[in-house]
Amino acid sequence: MDNIRFGKFIRESRQAKGLTQKQLAEQIHVSDKAVSKWENGAGFPDIKILEPLAQCLGVSLLELMQSERMAEPEIDREEAEQIVAETISQSKQAQERGRQMWKVKLLLGACACGVLYLVCVGIGYLAGQEEGRALEKLSAFSDSPWYENPVFFYVWAGALVILCGAGAVYLLWKNESIREVKIGRHKVKSLLTILMDMLVVFLLHTYLSNIANNEKQLAMLPEAIPINAYVSTADGSRQSGIFIKDSLVQGLLDSAYVDRLKMDVRLKAGIDQVIPGEWHTLNLFLDGVNGIEAVGGIEESDVVWNAGADASILQGSEAKCIVSKELFERKGWKLGDQVTLCQWYYYRKDERYAELFAGPLQTVEYEIAGYVDMRGRWDDQFAVPPDVIVPFHAVRNTYAEEGIPFFASSAAFQVSDALSLNAFKQEMKDLGFRSAAPTELDQSVNGVALNVNDAAFISTAEHLRQVIDTVRAFFPFLLILIVGVGYLITLLLLQSRKKEMALLRSIGLNRYQCFRVFFVDQLTLVITGVVAGSVLAVLIQGNYGGSSALAGGLVGICYMAGNSLALWKLLDVSVMEALFVEG
User: Fold this and answer.
1) Could you report the per-residue pLDDT of 379-390, keeping only the tens digit for each?
2) Where along the chain do its domains lie?
3) Torsions phi, psi for 69 (to 5 deg)
4) Which of 42, 150, 445, 546 is the most buried (most CB within 10 A)?
């Protein structure tokens, strides 16, 4: 039974009875859309509706099934049975097609969910990359079990999209009701379209990965080439044994750009008491430091510590000390002993000159937290290694308690955010630091200049930024190129299908309907190629999430833009010319 003929017969019979589609639908308890579908030859009524439908139209059941008026309605039994069997077969085929279309919708829905997941993962990766958390996130997952590994789910989500898309295409291919355009009729062209999309996605993924890798190198550059800075005299000739004002010290302590700050303050000291005039009693060098790394040539493992003590004591302000092994053995001290030190500080009567004087600071009782062999370990930061090492902030507090202006003897650190070098330098300038001027004559030992060893970092960072900017500059042209590729490939591959387009136009489809049919056909192929190319790029090149999702999305949009332009151009074909001219 021909659907077109059947639909035409229903329409003519309905009009002969003076019924509208809605009125007919109400009488047989279906929707007017169902009646419209029957009349357009797009569907076939259920076999249970045939008899009520024939009664409403005023025709016999046999006339309805044969789709024509019969002058002599009587037919033999064999012919009637054949017509009924054919009708039942048509109904079953229509029901089967309906079930297949539901399966197609289900598969396409799963495919859409998978694509949405891939896009969301990509956006999340890029957002994390902008906030500087992407690398941390990836490294955290590198050794995690499979169920916590996002790469695993990303790859399998892509595989799910491919399988669901392929299943939907296969069902559409088998469904004989889809006669207008079938991918199966053009296997080679379809395969070429998918492979071309995969290739373009892979190349764009490589391009974006190159940008991402350069950005990653730029982000990791501070670790690869750390920027060290130190305070010196105005001419840069001296960086230890100088006088750094307390306001500058506090500024360094408060700055978010200062990392691994190492400071010290040099004092003279005597044990128990210092007798004025008998300067041999002021015979110890005392160094206040804010960390073991500020003590040249000494590591935490070199110190013999008292139980429960470690290098963290130097970061606080408790009255604890580390003494030289030679002094420890000479005095017969034990770990945990209390030792009284009379501390004297260095000062200048005129800050314009380097002449030093010593004055009493404060007598403090320190607990011996450890001892260390200073000989052969001192890196010559000072002329003489210290006999006693105490916490920097403990010494600084004694200055404040005595109302004496505090000066640090040295300060060195690393810049924590090297990519914000200009902001760091501006902050240091606002604090009061200036650049060292080697030609400047400086007779004082004022620590006023900041020396920043950033030449290698700046040179490398500028090179990476130039590479990134240069590659990014070609990005718009690359997208235009993808549009052009989509246009040319579609134009070439669909030249042989002009006759097919003309046939669609000849059966009553307008230009927009014909465009939609071919657009859906090409969109299915492009999505398959884009997802397959994205997953392949992740498996081969890595770079989870960001570049692959972005590359796939951009290729899909740009390629379909060029594809749409080519389809619209191909639809300009003359129906008569395409039907009767070969090629």
Assistant:
1) 544 457 899 999
2) 3-75, 100-221+466-580, 228-453
3) -75, 140
4) 445
